[in-house]
TrEMBL record:
The lineage of its organism: Bacteria, Bacillati, Bacillota, Bacilli, Bacillales. The keyword Manganese does not apply. Pfam families: GntR (PF00392). Keywords: DNA-binding, Transcription, Transcription regulation. This is HTH gntR-type domain-containing protein. SMART domains: HTH_GNTR.
Length: 317
């Protein structure tokens, strides 16, 4: 059993992957490769935040998510530990894959190829020769103001299908008979726009599946701890997305704060919002930008797919 005050982690704001996801996957990699073992104590939130010079809320979110997934043990008054769990054991069993990748990269470099060439070749090989051409194909419809990136990634994760994304703002300008129904197995949309999508494609003989999201109880509990009258902004890609986040918080019975909803695209109002509030809660799609603009105020408020929606998508495999 060892105690770590630092970890070999890096963050790169230039990558298209959110920093919280970068850290989460790196810690899982350390667990998988057995660089850290069950029972080992990880750095405190403050230690890791100072090491990486990032917001403490980001570290706390990463630790909390890994706890929910069964990889970490968090107890009040004690350091975070690696759990001795089935999830950890299953992850370690996948270590052989990384050995294969490492050997392949080393062989390619020895033969004079660059790492970028290796990655590009791997991607194209997968695209043309491995990816299942018989995978289901779905059209996903959502608006530009909600966190459509989250929904799209969840659909891909749970179905393994090919996903074509259509914004509802663009859908309104096309006729339903333009859609080639032979090319897709169904349409997926969210509760935000289910009625409009069903009405628009009412004459097409395709199933339309509706999914929804919620907020983590842990995140809601943290918001509930804020002092009465605290000014809190909820920011997404657009105003409607921010309003959705604020409404979920209010529905959870949290009504002692002053909520302001906004969108990252509303640049004129965004500066005023940032200046006027005490805290900012941002969806994953906009977190990096807001954390850059106001790191001392910004916290991540990620969406979670509802359990019923997970089952709907799992059944579409």
């Amino acid at each position: 059993m060892r105690t770590y005050n630092t970890l070999s982690l890096i963050v790169d704001s230039e990558l298209p992957i959110p920093i919280n996801i970068q850290l989460k996957e790196q810690i899982k990699f350390l667990i998988k490769m057995e660089y850290v073992l069950p029972g080992d104590y990880l750095p405190t939130v403050n230690q890791l935040a100072d090491q990486l010079t990032i917001n403490r809320n980001t570290i706390n979110w990463v630790y909390t998510q890994l706890k929910e997934e069964g990889f970490l043990l968090m107890q009040k008054g004690r350091r975070t530990q690696i759990r001795d769990s089935q999830q950890v054991r299953s992850l370690v069993q996948k270590k052989d894959l990384d050995d294969i990748v490492k050997t392949s990269i080393e062989t390619a470099i020895e033969k004079g190829f660059t790492f970028d060439e290796f990655v590009a070749s791997t991607f194209m090989h997968h695209h043309f020769f491995i990816e299942n051409p018989h995978s289901a194909r779905f059209l996903f419809i959502e608006c530009k103001e909600h966190d459509h990136i989250f929904y799209s990634e969840e659909i891909k994760k749970h179905t393994g299908a090919h996903i074509t994304e259509l914004f509802i703002e663009d859908m309104r300008d096309i006729e339903e008979d333009v859609l080639d129904v032979k090319e897709i197995n169904g349409i997926i949309t969210t509760l935000n726009h289910a009625d409009e999508v069903k009405a628009h494609f009412s004459r097409i003989n395709l199933p339309i599946y509706t999914i929804g999201a919620t907020l983590s109880p842990i995140d809601l509990m943290n918001i509930a701890k804020l002092k009465e009258g605290t000014k809190v902004a909820f920011i997404c890609l657009g105003d409607k997305g921010g309003e959705w986040m604020a409404n979920r918080v209010e529905e959870a019975g949290i009504q002692h704060i002053v909520s302001i909803a906004g969108g990252i695209s509303e640049k004129r109002n965004l500066g005023e919002i940032i200046h006027s509030v005490d805290y900012i809660y941002a969806s994953e799609a906009v977190y990096e930008k807001l954390n850059h603009l106001a790191p001392e105020k910004t916290s991540l408020l990620p969406l979670k797919l509802e359990k019923t929606s997970e089952r709907i998508l799992e059944n579409l495999k």
